[in-house]
Amino acid sequence: MSASSAFIDEKGGSASEPEYGHDPASGGIFSSDYKRHDDLKEMLDSNKDSLKLEAMKRIVAMIARGKNASDLFPAVVKNVACKNIEVKKLVYVYLVRYAEEQQDLALLSISTFQRGLKDPNQLIRASALRVLSSIRVTIIVPIMMLAIKEAASDMSPYVRKTAAHAIPKLHSLDPDQKDQLIEVIEKLLADKTTLVAGSVVMAFEEVCPDRIDLIHKNYRKLCNLLIDVEEWGQVVIINMLTRYARTQFLNPNINESLLEENSEKAFYASDDEEEEDKKDEVAPLAKRKPYVMDPDHRLLLRNTKPLLQSRNAAVVMAVAQLYFHLAPKAEVGIIAKALVRLMRSHSEVQYVVLQNVATMSIKRRGMFEPYLKSFYIRSTDPTQIKILKLEVLTNLANETNISTILREFQTYIKSMDKDFVAASIQAIGRCATNIGEVRDTCLNGLVQLLSNRDELVVAESVVVIKKLLQMQPEQHSDIIKHMAKLIDNIQVPMARASILWLIGEYCEHVPKIAPDVLRNMAKTFTNEEDIVKLQIINLAAKLYLTNSKQTKLLTQYVLNLAKYDQNYDIRDRARFIRQLIVPTDKSGALSKYAKKLFLALKPAPVLESTFKDRDHFQLGSLSHLLNAKAGGYQELPDWPESAPDPSVRNVEIPDWSKCTSRKDRKEKKAEKPFYSDSDGESGPTESADSESDSGSGSESASASDESGSGSESGEETESEEEEEDEEEEKKKKRKKHLDKTKAKKPVEESTESEQSSGSEERKRGRKAVKNQKSASESESESESSESGDESEDESEEESESDTDIRKKKTPVSKQPPKQSKKESKKETQEMSLLDLDDFEPAPASAPVTPVNFMSSSLVSDLEGLSLTDTILAPTTITPSGSIKMYELLHRITGEGLAVEYCFSRQPFSPDPNMVAVQIQFTNNTNSETKNLHIEEPRLQCGMRIREFAEIDVLSAGESVTVVMGIDFCDSTQAANFQLCTHTRKFFASIQPPVGELMTPVFLTENDFKKEQGKLMGMNEISEKLTLGEKCVNEHVIVERVTATANLSRVPCGSDKECRFAGKTVSSGCLVLVTVSTKEGGRAQLTVNCEKMLIGTMLVKDIMQALSQ
Amino acid sequence: MIHSLFLINNAGDLFLEKHWKSVISRSVCDYFFEAREKAVEPDNVPPVIRTPHHYLINIYREKIFFVSVIQTEVPPLFVIEFLHRVAETFQDYFGECSETTIKDNVVIVYELLEEMLDNGFPLATESNILKELIRPPTILRSMVNTITGSSNVGETLPTGQLSTIPWRRAGVKYTNNEAYFDVVEEIDAILDKSGTTVFAEIQGVIEACVKLSGMPDLSLSFMNPRLLDDVSFHPCVRYKRWESERVISFIPPDGNFQLMSYHISAQNLVAIPVYVKQNISFFETGSSGRMDITVGPKQTMGKTVECLVVTVHMPKVVLSANLNATQGTYNYDPVTKILVWDIGKLNPQKLPNLKGSLSLQSGAPKPEENPSLNIDLKIQQLAISGLKVNRLDMYGEKYKPFKGVKYVTKAGKFQVRT
C-alpha cells in the first residue's frame, strides 16, 4: 500500500508540528520540513518512474491535507511530460492546484498541453484541454480561447464536451472573453450528441443565461435528446428549459387560475360578496379564448415525464419542479408519487424534498393528500425532518382528514423532542384557525396542555391559545381566567407576554382578575424580560383606560419604573403612553382617542405557513430552500400575456451538401414534406442516437427539422391521451371533406375512372355491402386529398394502372410521388400494391407542400364511396377477398350459426392500441337468432377486449358483420370468450397471426436506416432463405410480405432490397423488415424489432410465405 | 457549481480538502462547525448552511461530514446527490467509507475526485468508467505494485465514456457466467400502542450481481408486475418496454448494482410479520420504572423470523436497566440511552420476553412519554409483498448463464409506539 505508506510517512514527518493546518513554509523552511522536501525533489529528479511516483503520491497526500507544497513546483513541473501515466496525472493534480500561485513557472508546462491538443487520440486531446483550461493563469487566455474554439469543432464528441466544460473556466478567468465564448456556445448548442448537450447547457447557464434566443433553434433537439443525456446534464437542461418555457408559452392554467380564484374567494367571502364576484369574473372568463397548448410545450412535458423514474433524486426533483411550474393543473399530480418516493432516501435528500413539498402542498393540496400517511413522523427522524413533515401535514389538513391528523398530533405532543413538541402545538393552532369545525376541540386540547409539566409545552400552548382566542374571545373568558392563574408559574417570556396581552385586551371579560395580575407584575417588573415589560406597560395602559379607579396608582408606578429602565424602547414606550393616557393640559388631541387607540378591535391573526408564496422562487433551487435570492439565481419569469412567435423554434432545412450522395439528397428533399406527418408523430419520441460522428449529423438534423415543421401541424405532437378525441375529430373532418369532394365533384375527372369505380361497385354490390377495402382506402385517400387539393392533375397512365389493379381486386393505395415519377410504369404498378395501410390517423392539418400525387382513380373512389352514405359506419364493412378469413364457429357446431373473422387491418378507432377484428355472423337456420353478444372474456394478463354492440336480431339466412377490438398486448396468445345467442353459448377463441399485431408506419429510407441502426444486436434477426418458385420479382415479394404482415413498404433506391416498416399495435415498437434478394433465387431476410418474440415469429412467417 | 470539498470527521477534524476551482480557505468551515455545535446531533445539521460569501452543502455519512462549498445558485439536491455518489464510490472502492480507509487511500481518493468533477461539474460518476480509469486497490495488486512499481491508474483510456452505454465496459470476460438477483423488501410501518397499524408500506429494491461476458441483453419479468406501484430504475433499464409490457429489459453494468427500486401500492394490505406486546411504565415515586416486552410471530407466511432486534431510545432520565431476557442478550448504553435487545431467531413455541426494572435519575420528574420501539428483523426466502420473478432471459450472447433469484424481507423503519 504505497499510498497509505505515503500518508503515514507524512503523518510521522509532521508529528513535530503542533497544529494540523500549520503551514510549513511559514516557520519550518529550515527545519526538517525543508530537508524532507529536498528528498522529494531528489526523487522527482531521478530516472526511475517508481521513485517519481512515490514522491508525487506523498506530495498529493500533502495537498489533500491542505499543506503547502508550493516550493516543489519547479521540480514537479518538469515531470509534466513523464511517460508514466499515473505520475502524469498526479502532476496534473499538482499543477492545477498551484499554477495560480506560480504563474511564471506554470507557463513551462503549456507547450506540453499544446502538443497534447494535437494528439491523434481523442482522450489525450480531451485531457490536455481539460488541464490547460484548469490552469488559472491570465497570460494563457488567448491560447485557451484558441484551444477551445478548435476543440469545439473537433471530430470527437468527447473533446467537444471537454470544450464545453472549458468555457465557464475561461469565462471566470477573463469575463472579457464573453462574446467570443457565446459564439462557441452557440456552435456547441447546435451539437447533436447527448454527450455534449448537458455540458454546453451548463456553460450556457454560467456564461449567458439570459441569451434565451440561442435556445430557440435547439429547443426541440434538446427535448428529444434529454432522456439519453447523462443524469447531471439532465438536471441542468431541465432547469434551463423550465425558464425557457416560461418565456415562450402561455400559462396552461390561465382559465383554471381564474376559476380557482373565484372559488377561493367564494370559500372565504360572505354570500353576497360572492355573487358580485361571480358577476365580475364571469365576463372575462367568457371572453377568453380556449387555451391550446403549444405542441412544443407538450413535447417538453412528455419527454421529461419518464425521468420521474430516474434513480437520481436531483433529476426527479428537476422534473417535478418543471411540472409544477409548467404543466396544466390536471397533470401536475403525477409528480407526487415520485416525490414521496424520494422521502425514502438519505435524510439530506428528504430535507430538500420536504421543503419543496411544503411549498407545493400549499398551492396544490390535493396532489399529496393520497400520500398523507407517508408524512407521518417517526421518533427516530431528525428534528428538522420532523418539523418539515409537520408543516406538510398541516398544509394537507382539511375537513375530511383533520381527525386523523389531530390524532397523530396527539402522539407527537408526547414526544421527548421538545422543539418538535413546540412545532406540533403550533401546527395544531394552525389547523384550528384554518378549519373552523375543529377549533373548539383544538382549543380544549391546548388548554389541557396548559397543565403539562414541561414549561416549554405550556408556553407554546399559551402563545397558540392566545392567537385562537383572538378569534372569538367572548366565549372563552374562563380560559382567559385559567391562563391568568398560570402567569405565576410560567417563566418563558413569550408566554408571559402573551398572557398579559390577552388579559389586557380582554380585561372587560375578566374585570376582577386583571388589576390583580397587574399588581403582581408591577412587583416583578424589574426582573422581567423586555417583551414582558412592554406588555406590562400595555396592560397598565389598557386597565387605566377601562378601570382607572382601581389601577391609577398602579399604572403610575409601572410607568415610573419603566421611565428608568435600561432599555430605550421601554423608556420610549412609557413616555409615549403616559402622554397619551394621562390627561394633562398639554396633552394633545390624541388623548381623547386613547381608548379607541388601545382597545380597537384587532383583527384575528392569520396563522400562515412559512412556505406560503415561496413558489415565486423556482422550486428545487438553492434560493427556494433559503427563501432568499442566491448569487447567480435566474428569476423564473412570469408567463407572457400572449405567446411569442412559435416559429422561432423551427429549424431551417439543413445544409444538404453534407449528404453523401446526390441521389440521397434528391430523395430526401422529395420525401420530406410527404412523410413529415408521420415523422412529426414519431419525432419527439425517438431519441436521436448520435454515436457515429459522420453522417448521422445530417440525419438527426432532418429528423428534428421534420418534427420541427409542425408549427402548424398542431395536434400531432399532442399527448397520447388526446389522441383518441383527436382521431374522432379527424374523422369528422374527413367526413366533411368527403362531402365536400362529393359536392364539387371535379369536372375534369376522366370518365374512365368513373366507370371503373362504378363497375367495382357493382361487383361488390352483390353482397349488398360495400367493400371494406375500398372504404378504408378511400378514407385514407381522402386524408391525402386533404393534403393536396391541387392533386387533380394526375397522369392518365396511373389511373389506368390503378383501375387494372382494382379489377384484380388487389388493394390499391397512394404512393409516394417521387417514386411514381421516377420509376417506370410497371414499377408504379407494384408500388401501388404496397401500402394497403395508410390508415394512420390523418394529421389534423395537412402538410402544406404542394405535391401532386393523388390519382384520379382515387377521386373516382371517393365518388364511389359517396354513393352510399353509410360508408363510415363500421357495421357495413365486410372484408375484401384479399384478406384471409378464419373460422370462429363452424356452421355445424354453431347449430346453424356460422361465424368467421378476419383482421381488417384498419385502425380500431375507439382504442388505437387494439387490433380490429371483423366478425361476420351468418345465420343458416330457418329462424331468427337474437341477442348476439360476447360474454366472459378470459384473457391473458394485460389483454383487453372491446366488445361489439349486441346484435339484436339476425334473421334467417342473413349475415351481418361487426368489428371488435382486442388488445393482444403484442403477444400471439389467444383471446378466449363466449359467444352468446339468446339460446346458446359457444366457446370461441381468436388467435392472431403475428403479422396482424402491427400497423404500418411510414418511414423514409433514411429514417429506416436510422431506426434500424438503433435496433441492432439482439434486436436483429437475420435468416437466409431460398425464394419460392413464384417469387420471381419484387412485386411478388412485396405482395407476400404485406399479406403476411401488416406492414408498409419503405421506398428504397435499390431494387435488390425491399424494406417494410410497421409498429406493434399495442406498444408501438417498431418492426423493420428487410428482404434483400441475391443471385439464384436466394435472399436474406432481416427483421429488427425490440420485441424479440415478435421478431422471431415474424421471421418464421415471412420465411414461409416467401419460400412457397 | 461545486467549488471545494472538505471531509470532516465526527470529532471536527478536517482531514481532506479538494478544490476544483481556485482555493478556498478552510476557515470557511468555521460556519459549519458553528452549525454543527448548535445542532447537537449530527443528524440535525442543516444540509444547507449560508455564510456571507458561500453556501455550504453537506451530507453526513458513515460518521463523516462531506462539506461542499458552493458560490452560486445550484439545485441543492444536485450537490447532495453527487456527494452521496462520492461516498458510494469510496465504499465501492475501499469496501467501506470511513476516515481510516480514506486516509489510507488518499491518493486514490484524490484521483477519483479529480475524475468525478471537472470545474465543479460532474464528469464521470459511473463506477464502471471510474474503475477503468483508476483501478480499485486489492491486496494482490498493491503487493504487485510495491514490487514492480506499476500503478493503479489504468493504462488504457476508458471507452465507456464514449459509448452509449457508459455503465458497461467493453470486453468483459468470465469463465463462469452468472447473474444473481436479490429481491430485498423492507416493511416501513408504524404500529400504535394497541398494535393496530397506523401506517405500513413496502419498499423494495432489486440488487443485482451480474458477471456475464460480452454484451448480454437481459430481460426480467415478474409473475405479478401489477403489484408494483412506483418504480425507479438504473439508467440501463429501457423505460419504454417497462411501460408497454412490464418487462425489465436492460444491458447490465458489470458487477454489483441496484437494478431498480419499487414501492408496493398502498391498496395492498401489508402483512406485519411480528407483533409486540409491551408494557413500559414509570412510577410517580421511587424513581424507577418497569418494562415488559414480548415479541411474537404474526404473519410470517410460514417462514422463520431471524435477526430480530428491538431497539429502544430511552428517555434521558433512565440511568440503568436491570432486565431479564428469556432469549438473546440485551445491552443498555447509559450515554446514548439506547437499549438494544438482540433476540436472534424467533421461536414461535417459546416467545422471547424481556422483563425487569429501570432505574431513573432520582428527583427528576417521570418521563411523560414512553419510548417507542424500533424493530429490526429479517425473513429469508420471502418477499412479503408476494412479488415473484417469473423468468430471466438473456439475448445477444451464446453461452448459458447461471441464474439465481433470492428473496429477503427486512424491517425498514418499523416502529411500535407505546
Q: Judging by the overall fold, what is the CATH architecture of the largest domain in chain B?
A: 2-Layer Sandwich
Question: Rg of chain A from C-alpha positions?
Answer: 40 Å
Q: In oligomeric terms, what are we looking at?
A: heterodimer
Helix fraction of chain B, binned, reads 10-25%
Keywords (chain B): Cytoplasmic vesicle, Golgi apparatus, Membrane, Protein transport, Transport
Membrane topology (chain B): Peripheral membrane protein
InterPro entries (chain B): Adaptor_comp_med_subunit, AP2_Mu_C_sf, AP_mu_sigma_su, Clathrin_mu, Clathrin_mu_CS, Longin-like_dom_sf, MHD
GO biological process, one term (chain B): intracellular protein transport
Explained architecture:
Chain B: Belongs to the adaptor complexes medium subunit family. Chain B: InterPro entries: Adaptor_comp_med_subunit, AP2_Mu_C_sf, AP_mu_sigma_su, Clathrin_mu, Clathrin_mu_CS, Longin-like_dom_sf, MHD. The complex is a heterodimer of chains A (1108) and B (418). With 1108 residues, chain A is α+β, with helices and mostly antiparallel strands. Among the domains of chain A are: 38-249, Alpha Horseshoe (Leucine-rich Repeat Variant); 304-377, no CATH class; 886-992, Immunoglobulin-like (Sandwich), CATH 2.60.40; 996-1107, 2-Layer Sandwich (TATA-Binding Protein), CATH 3.30.310. In chain A, the strands form 3 sheets. In chain A, strands 10, 11, 12, 13, 14 and 15 form a 6-stranded antiparallel beta sheet that branches. Chain A has a 5-stranded antiparallel beta sheet with strand order 1-2-3-7-5, covered by helices on one side. In chain A, strands 6-4-8-9 form a 4-stranded antiparallel beta sheet, with no helix packed on it. Chain A is flat and about 125 Å long. Chain B is 17% helix and 42% strand. With 418 residues, chain B is an alpha+beta fold. Chain B folds into 3 domains: 2-148, Beta-Lactamase; 178-270 and 384-416, Immunoglobulin-like; 274-380, Immunoglobulin-like (Sandwich), CATH 2.60.40. A 9-stranded mixed beta sheet of chain B has the order 11-13-9-8-23-21-16-19-18, with no helix packed on it. A 5-stranded antiparallel beta sheet of chain B has the order 2-1-5-4-3. In chain B, β1 and β2 form a beta hairpin. Chain B is globular, with a radius of gyration of 25 Å. Chain B is built from 7 helices and 23 strands. The chains are: A alpha+beta (1108), B alpha+beta (418).
